Amino acid sequence: MILALLGGGGFRVPLVFRTLLADRTDGRVTQVRLHDTDGVRLAAMEKILVAMAEAVPDAPRIMICSELADAVRGADFVFSAIRVGGTKGRAADERIARELGILGQETTGFGGISYALRGLPVALDIARTLADVNPEAWLINFTNPAGIVTEASREILGDRVIGICDSPIGLARRVLGSLETAGHVPAGTALDVGVGGGDVRLDYAGLNHLGWLQGLQVRGEDVLPRLLERPDLLESFEEGRLFGAEWLRTLGSIPNEYLHYYYFARETVEADGRSEATRGVFLEQQQDGFYRAADGVVPAEAALLWERTRQRREETYMASNREAAGVAERDEEDLEAGGYDRVALAIMHAIAHDRPAQLVLNVANRGTLEHLPEDAVIEVPCLVDAAGPRPLPVSPLPAHALGLVQTVKHVERTVIRAVTESRRDLAIEALALHPLVDGVGVARRAFDLSRAEFPELVALR
């Protein structure tokens, strides 16, 4: 198979390549094409991948493509993980949010909307290019905000675009890890969850970064009630410590970690305000230092530098949320990044070689969740085979979740319309209606500050 990686200079590219190197099955990826608009970052990633491939027989051949059309032409799968505006743009969003006293996280609320407004035009150009030069390819989207980008891209590519995220997988593995420790499920149950195999079935539903685990079947038995009746087990993994056992038992489900921004919005804003630098500023400084250092060393040293930088990046993930919840550090097992890379590989094998797999993906609703449009992109378990992904039955959203999901879905679709119709009023509507932006006045100020920061938004009139 041929895989094109868009955003090929991105920091997490080695995670994908590491998974490809470990795949020794028939029909594996034999060529990886890297495309990026930043030549310095692209050169650094090429250097690291070369070092990683040295000791692996028959490693995928690495190609650098300066033109988007050349990267995707003839590819079987296209993996998109671009960041329009880079980490500098994320830092700017967070600075604006801090000035206004709202959350600036890059995938939800103001930060997610600002990110989408400047990123969607590029994502849509990718979709149009793919439809023009390689309409038979499959686009695997990891570009954030993943739900919005996937839904917008579907207008051009239809079912041949699939959104992925590693959050639901990580959640299920951590829950199962706690249950394994307590002897409620067999050891090793968590290993293959979410990447296609095993005896585990997730009852998980919602939108990207806005979902709930309502059931967890192991060999036909729902083991989630065993977890919910044990406060000590609930607070033995990351989401349990973030939300607290009392709140999880009130909900009767385990929320995606990103729902902490909704359930504890005020506490997180306050913790963010106390931090010396926001997450975006930290990443901007860290990655700038990494790419400059990688430019001046040999491939093997660049690979070691990348691993050390990655470790520090994972240690500081969602630091403000942990501070707001009174949680000091992440567990050692949570520092192993990835998950989405294994999902991407499972998708490719399932489709290309008709190896059925059950995966949590962002796909069209098609009646899976009532009260949402048929064509709305949702995040649910799917069966994937040569025909592509099909949503599996899940429990209806609980009453406390339904209104929130409907509101955020309306916001997502309004953001897409704002970009495709070049309308400022729709961008402000999306901001004003989002639960994490408190009012029309704040929405207007936020948009005006974003438009002053990002020239791309001048097109919205």
Could you explain how this protein is built, in words?
There is one protein chain. By secondary structure, the chain is α/β, with parallel strands linked by helices. The protein has a domain at 2-88 and 102-163: 3-Layer(aba) Sandwich (Rossmann fold). The chain is built from 20 helices and 13 strands. The protein has helices spanning 13-22, 39-53, 68-72, 86-100, 109-133, 146-157, 167-181, 224-228, 231-234, 238-243, 245-251, 260-263, 265-274, 279-294, 299-315, 319-325, 340-352, 399-420, 424-433, 440-453; strands at 2-6, 31-35, 61-64, 77-80, 138-141, 161-163, 200-207, 210-218, 221-222, 254-255, 357-364, 377-385, 388-391. It has a 6-stranded parallel β-sheet with strand order 3-2-1-4-5-6, with helices on both faces. Strands 7, 8, 9 and 10 form a 4-stranded antiparallel β-sheet that branches. Helix 1 (13-22) runs parallel beside helix 2 (39-53). The model is unreliable at 334-338 (pLDDT under 50). The active site is at 166 (proton donor), 258 (proton acceptor). Belongs to the glycosyl hydrolase 4 family. The record marks 106 as: Increases basicity of active site Tyr.
